[in-house]
Amino acid sequence: MVIDDQKLPALLTIKQVSTILNVHITTLRRWDKNGKLKAIRVGTRSGVGERRYHREDIIKLIAK
Could you tell me the sign of the dihedral formed by the alpha carbons of 45, 57, 33, 15, in that order? Predict the structure, then answer.
């Protein structure tokens, strides 16, 4: 898969990453829990925050 990393925002939503990697959102949540692809939490939605992913982490995962 070829992506133009210059067009990607610095932080991606779980939905954006799901689309880029072609995996289900639940898979991304499991990867975060297991440490395969760590997310950061932003905001205060439901007291836990929404997951965001660093562009560089996604690019590294694709490159593997």
Answer: positive
pLDDT in tens, 2-35: 566 667 788 999 999 999 999 999 999 999 999 9
Tokens of 40: 């950061």
Cα distance between residue 42 and residue 28, in whole Å: 16
Could you tell me if residue 34 is inside a domain? yes
Q: Report how far residue 22's alpha carbon sits from residue 7's, in angstroms, rounded to the nearest whole number.
A: 18
| Within a domain: 56 | yes
Q: What is the DSSP string of 9-39?
A: -SEEEHHHHHHHHT--HHHHHHHHHHTSS--
What domain range includes position 16? 11-63
- Please state the pTM of the whole predicted model: 0.80
